[in-house]
Amino acid sequence: MSALPKRIVKETERLMAEPVPGISAVPHEDNLRYFDVMIHGPSQSPYESGVFKLELFLPDDYPMTPPKIRFLTKIYHPNIDKLGRICLDVLKSNWSPALQIRTILLSIQALLGAPNPDDPLANDVAQRWKEDEQAAIQTAREWTRQYAMA
Amino acid sequence: MADNGNQQRELVYCHACASDWYRDQHGLNCPSCASEVVEIIEERSDPRRDHIDISDDEDEDTVMGNNNDRLHHNPLHRHNPWRDNAPDPDDPGIEHVEWNPAPGVHLARTSFRSTGPGMRPRPQDPNDIFAPLFQSFSTILEGAANAGRPPLRDGPTRAVSQIHRPAFPAGNIFPEHQHHHIHHHHGPWDGPQGGRSVFTATGRWSPNGPGLFPNDRNGQNVQNVLATLIQTMQAGIAEQRGQQTPMATDLPAFIAQILGNGAHGDAVFSDEALDRIITQMMEQTNTNSAPGPASAAAIAALPKKQVDKSMMGQDGKAECSVCMDAVEIGDEVTVLPCNHWFHGDCVGAWLKEHDTCPHCRQGIMPKDGPQEADAPRSPGQAPRHSLNPFMNPIDPNVNPGTPPSPGSGPYGINNQLPMPGAFIQPGMQQPYVPGGYPRYPEPTNFVRPPGQHQGPYSQAPSPQQQQRHRRSFTSQRSNNGGEGSSGGGGQKA
To answer: Which are the catalytic amino acids of A?
Structure first.
């Protein structure tokens, strides 16, 4: 494997030196492109008080392609499917090399605070979110309590 | 069926050295040669006769049809204590299967049917890692055999003969029959159920033992498959045994287990592997919806300039936001029509994939008309954007960024996350104006928190949302206050 690009080294250093409150990303020692991520659920969201684990991988051609990110903690969210895959434009077609791990994780945290059932990844969740938002939010709370609280 | 042998002691026959013994005396391993390729003799199926039948290499239907005649040629038939009660020596109740999937690997499986309460079905040994192996291989081999490739070799040099059972009619005359069949289409799962059966599967790895001859050339394909599987398994064998871990018993899980990732070539054996493929396809689809590349000519035609003091941040620093390397005064950078600048190589690598400014998503390709959309700017053509940001006229046809997608919701998140550089930065009072010229855009390397969107694409969040996000991100903003001026790079303050 080729040497780690300077950009990844810099990003990692900055993540360590200036951590984002409510977000942590720690690279694996044996694979510096693979990060263990924790995101705290935004306050006043159904995910409040939950700590969500994610995995993040920087592909070979990063930053020309976006990082691959997936929720490992089960979460009830219209834009996150049962496998933890995330529907977020900046992770896909709207990726830009000026974006970073830090910005992407903030975007994901923001997504938790602003579910968008009109652009769903998990269709059943989105459907319920639209039909009975209160019930859906309640389920999201329960899942948070059940899966995202130690 | 005949149950009159219930009280008989079980007689075990060794296929390797053709000796026999009582099971309660010596167990299931041959006391003579220590082979595990053994079979419990039953009245309905005496492997000693089978042995001879096979060696005659006759068509099996003939063997079956002329069974009584053939018994004359069996030197052991007179010793069969159940001869009178054994009208059908080719009883399917016993299956013995073996093959050498790879050099040095010998596998054998014997399954026999229990016909009475005197013989308890032996539960599958949890240490017997070959049981699922056999089941799986049998299925594979069955398919291979049906495809006209005999999976099992059959040669005179084999130390142990292979019992090749004929097919049985659909109306099985042995209702309790539940054999494990590898050659014939009606397998163990489509026959009448209800009988008890016992499977014994054994395996042996020996470097130079008997029966390790090259396999049938016709079975080469199967051999390769099996050899691959075996090799994959071998590493885990000791551990499996040590931990007494039963292996997965269903075929997909088993294949997935030994293949590691659940996929082999074009075949997928597990839900996880399928999901992985779906993920891959999703990513490709999403990538495809991103803007296409800029032409090489257009990229090459981008103006370059030397970084001067005015392009540095307030703290006198700047960096290329693609590679995050610091940019010093005097370095040459490439300037995009939107006036964002980067290292030429860095932005070139991006533009040749996607014609968007990494900061504001404005493209560099002319978009004046559909007929020109793909035409690069000719080298002699005047640049559409002057180097001087203050003199640069705004081309009304130039899309300043990605418009909100029709499917986006009211949250301004999913498809409309603002780009760095599209916000008011610390120390900068002028917002980025959509459609207008970004006179003093200063990209940053953090995304503005939702609720504070003043970017071009987001709708105003509800007061509740604003409050929520402000609370969440207040501390983060203050932490990043200094970073905004130096971290984003690419533009002056």
So the answer is: 87
